[in-house]
Design goal:
The chain contains 8 helices and 17 strands. It is of the alpha+beta class and 326 residues long.
Length: 326
């Protein structure tokens, strides 16, 4: 199946030789600019935010980036694209034979493009059988019955959706060689959903044969990247930049959470990389309660200083007895 080639480097505005740090920096800048919660044109921002996330999902992962680069640098963004046969399907290939014949599936409303789903996602996987993928026909009567394929795709879930829960409309097109059909499903995303969790929509996979039931639809959650947070289970991790004097003397700073900013105290003598825990400010847990916000200190040194500042630093260097190499 031909898909539109996505130039992820173009999306993030970086050259193909960009370092991991440059890619991360560009993503954070663009994600803050187009985050739906702050943009005026929310619909356009939402689409742009998903596109930026998809690009970063691939380019921030060394294995995915290597595979993507193997596709070549000479494709025009938006042009029809078919990979060479020997390249294979990074997501695991075509679905297995299941009830109702060999079917392919396309998704809409999941937050990912067809290009991503074909080469880096779970889309089009399937198989019959009550046990999941790779079904078992039931021979009986005048013929046999075989349960329809279980179908798996990806769904991009923002941290705000994981925090509050949401309902999303997801389109699934069944291409079975007879014209196909498109179904729309209202998918409930529960609060506290975790990365990699599969959401099951029973009976919405491939059709069965011989009167057997349809398979199930599974959507695997991929938590959207966020400019301010990394995710560790139900904990959120935020890097807070500190001036040297804030780390030495202590300070009170404002840090973001998914429900608004909070003030935290930086203890005197805070070290670079030191972790401070703000309890209950992470993602909700399905059993009740919430994870924590982990604030990681990053001490920043000014790159340019005035002549007056230089004299103060020189005076400090002369008077201080601190030697980090002792």
């Amino acid at each position: 199946m031909a898909v539109k080639y996505k130039d992820y480097y173009e999306v993030l505005g970086v050259p193909r030789s960009a370092s991991e740090a440059d890619i991360k920096k560009s993503f954070r800048k663009l994600a803050r600019e187009f985050h739906p919660d702050v943009a005026k044109d929310k619909k356009r921002a939402e689409e742009k935010f998903k596109e930026i996330n998809e690009a970063y999902e691939v380019l921030s992962d060394p294995e995915k980036r290597k595979k993507y680069d193997e596709l070549g640098a000479n494709w025009k963004s938006g042009a029809d694209f078919r990979p060479p046969p020997e390249w294979g399907n990074f997501a695991g290939g075509r679905p297995r034979q299941g009830g109702g014949g060999d079917q392919e599936f396309e998704f809409g409303g999941t937050g990912f493009s067809d290009f991503f789903e074909q080469f880096f996602g779970s889309a089009r996987r399937g198989g019959g059988g009550a046990g999941g993928f790779g079904g078992r026909p039931d021979f009986g009567g005048d013929g046999y019955a075989e349960r329809g394929q279980d179908v798996e795709g990806d769904i991009m879930v923002t941290l705000e959706e994981a925090m509050n829960g949401a309902v999303r409309a997801v389109n699934v097109r069944h291409n079975d060689g007879r014209g196909g059909r498109t179904e729309t499903h209202q998918v409930k995303i529960p609060a506290g959903v975790t990365n990699g969790q599969r959401l099951r929509i029973p009976g919405r996979g491939g059709v069965g044969s011989g009167g057997a039931p349809a398979g199930d639809l599974y959507l695997r959650v991929r938590l959207a990247k966020h400019p301010d947070f990394e995710v560790d289970d139900h904990n959120l991790i935020h890097e807070a930049e500190l001036a040297p004097w804030e780390a030495v003397l202590g300070a009170e700073i404002s840090v973001p959470t998914l429900t608004g900013r909070v003030n935290i105290k930086i203890p005197a003598g805070t070290q670079n990389g030191q972790k401070l825990r703000v309890r209950g400010r992470g993602l909700p847990q399905r059993g009740g309660g919430s994870g924590d916000l982990i604030v990681v200190s990053r001490i920043e040194v000014p790159q340019k200083i005035s002549e007056g500042e230089r004299k103060i630093w020189e005076k400090l260097a002369a008077e201080s007895r601190f030697n980090p190499r002792d």
